[in-house]
Amino acid sequence: MKKVLSIVAVAALSAAFVSCGPSKEEIEAREKAKADSIAAVEQAAADSLAKVAEAEAAAAAQAAAEAAKADSIKVADSLAAASKGGKKK
After folding, report:
1. Which of the ends of the chain has fewer CB neighbours closer than 10 A, N or C?
2. Which helix (H) or strand (E) holds 85?
3. Per-residue model confidence as pLDDT tens digits over 16-67
């Protein structure tokens, strides 16, 4: 009799645990939310990397423009110096 009651009690507890667990829809919803969260984080990381690359490109363009300006000033100064020195005889 004790064995029968023990088996019935174990069966009842097992049924209670199974019936109180999350449903298939709840599990799928949780997995979908997790996947959406991961996708959002990956998109944010990609956007951040794109902004950094854009900023680096802008900085490189500005540096190139400043170097070109400095070179043209240097050439103009050397031409001016050469034209002053060329008039002396």
Report:
1. C
2. helix 24-86
3. 777 777 788 989 999 999 999 999 999 999 999 999 999 999 999 999 999 9
State both tokens at 73: 């000033």
Can you give the residue range of the structural domain that contains 36? 20-83
Does a structural domain hold residue 88? no
Q: The whole model's pTM is what?
A: 0.49
b/e per residue 45-80 (b: at least 16 CB within 10 A): eeeeeeeeeeeeeeeeeeeeeeeeeeeeeeeeeeee
Query: DSSP letters of 15-81?
Result: HHHHHHSPPHHHHHHHHHHHHHHHHHHHHHHHHHHHHHHHHHHHHHHHHHHHHHHHHHHHHHHHHHH
